[in-house]
Write a structure and sequence with these properties.
The complex is a heterodimer of chains A (327) and B (436). Chain A is an alpha/beta fold and 327 residues long. Helices cover 39% and strands 14% of the residues of chain A. In chain A, α1 packs across α5 and α5 crosses α12. Chain B has a 6-stranded mixed beta sheet, covered by helices on one side. Chain B has a 4-stranded mixed beta sheet with strand order 5-4-1-6, with no helix packed on it. Classes of the chains: A alpha/beta (327), B alpha/beta (436).
Chain lengths: 327, 436
Amino acid sequence: MSAPVTTRVDDPPAVTALRSKDLLGIADLTPEEISLILDTAEAMKEVGERPIKKVPALRGKTVVNLFFEPSTRTRTSFEIAEKRLSADTLNIAVASSSVVKGETLADTALNLEAMRPDMIVLRHSSSGACHLLSRICRSAIINAGDGMHEHPTQALLDAFTIRERKKRLAGLKVAIIGDLLHSRVLRSNIHLLTRMGSDVWVCGPPTLIPADIARFGVRATSVIDEAVADADVIMLLRVQLERMEGSFFPSLREYFSVFGMTEARLARARPDAIIMHPGPMNRGVEIASEVADGPYSVILEQVANGVAVRMAVLYLLSGGASDEAAA
Amino acid sequence: MKRLLKGGRVVDPASGIDGRHDVLIDGDRIVRVGPDLPADGAEVVEIPASLVVCPGFIDMHVHLREPGQEHKETVATGAAAAVAGGFTAVACMPNTSPVNDNANVTAFILAKAAEAGLARVYPIGAVSRGSKGELLADIAELKQAGCVAITDDGHPVATALLMRRAMEYAGMFGMPLIEHCEDPTLKGDAVAHEGYHAAALGLRGMPGAAEALGVERGVLLSELTGSAFHVAHMSARVSLRAVRKGKEAGVRVTCEVAPHHFTLTDESLASPIPYDTNVKMNPPLREVADRDAMLAGLADGSVDAIATDHAPHHYDEKKVEFDRAPFGIVGLETAVSLALDRLVHTGLVRLPRLVELLSVNPARILRVAGGTLAAGAPADITIVAPDLKVRIEAAALRSRSKNTPFDGWELRGGVAATLVGGRTVFVNPAIGLKRL
């Protein structure tokens, strides 16, 4: 099998494979493993730029995309990544599954497992759902977002995008602003960026800052100008409109006036700062449209890079690296 | 029939006894405790010097699940677990199905307990009908049928007014009100202790303050009504502070702590098994400072009792996503080993104090027999093996449910034998006391 992995000469990864059979969260990864995934994603990105965007790396492998929560971006991104690697893919969405008949997640997993898929990509509203599946299944489990816990491929694609633009992660000031409490994107990004040596600041109203945040190795503030000052990267997090207003902050209007990312606020960041958002965006709530659409915005690059990063994860977890070593 | 337990260290703080003594039993009563008692026709049971003879342990907070949830536990399986864990008596919570809010349910539980013929079972009645927090349950009839206290456990009493009236009314019979202390609005839909580990795992957290608000309310209403108030399964350091302040002010407040709250912390959410539903309980495992405060309270006397909050759940119910799993773990068969290992062998608590926590004080709070080996007391006796090496095996528990986070734990200290009303109801095969 011709493996599409190239190793960067300037920054050789210290490892050639991931230790775990699953990707449950960034918290389980070493900096070397993170570098391996990001380096592998660079080669995968090149595949997506070819006229024929397909390699046979996952030929004969079955990947189940098991989504218990609605998702357009992430599910599509995984599906494209799987197809570009020639995997056989199957999508199960909650509405059409037997879960509505009262089947437990454990039973759903056991039934799927009986049909011997190689990998299961799981999106679920309960934190830890992927850990439960991982204890039950021999298949590789890829976390596509579990409750408020982690969304590891999102953090990996964010890091990939930052690295592409800034050529490094270490030493960068990254400000993450928004609903910190309910965000799995935040948790994965904190784990990844602090492991890679970034200076991470988080910002939001005190009602939306998780307990004991200092233990995560980040600086927390509710003063947005402090978070933005001299930042290299500004990452906005989605505010969950439906359940926030009136309970965590008084109104969306007030939220925008205190925490919304405007061009005026952005002026305090470094001149070459980039703006990121994991989507879906609430324009005029956490981010002004002028900022979202501005020249410093890399929001669509994030989406594009998501496919390459997910290809890298699928490839590495399918035993790609060990196949290569055996060849 | 007379039996003489000969040798062994007798620890009976109620009589001020701690030393090598013999215990003479006649039928279901204790006749005498003293050094070198003559056999005088009694059957002699030799107790090795390494064992400790104590007044029977009383677990004042268990869920026996019958009627209604017999797939989790029954009165009989719960009683078997109790005696295997060294408890001669248990007080069972009313959140059965139907709720124990009337004399019929109480009588049913007592009939099942008599049929099992193992541990004594003291039912606790509901504060309100159906524990719904609206109308008072038939408290006088519950008392008459055999209930020893009232509680809406599982939830706090719905309103301060209802709690006040329940305290006033139950106070007329000397029944304490036992409270699951919690401000439901501050707890919300939380599933773990609010702190670093819940935040990192993305689990909704409840702060210790949610519990302490309930403690403060109860202390104030106890002061107002003059009735006894008992804090169930206390876990937070701010709750302990409220209890201490109440005691200093002369309020009739007492409290219990569960073994898991003096042993584990919220770090168990993350390791060794991330999201293990067997570390999900309410109140939740708290942070180190709270666990250490519980240990300090147990040592200095501000905590009155150790109670397990034995909460059996079927494995199907626990084999789900963490936030969907029911709260609670079984505790009857692990409590004494955990207490010996974590409290006595660490030097925090001496054996007489442990007997107060497990026997003297629960009997006093619930106003039931026991808590002493004095002449005339029921021959409810727990014989402890403080240095026995115990390995906890979930699969081997007598309880119908195996939901324990202590599976595979190796602890120092265990139960040698349990006697209820003079009858031997449990002998640990690892010790093999002859003729007991």
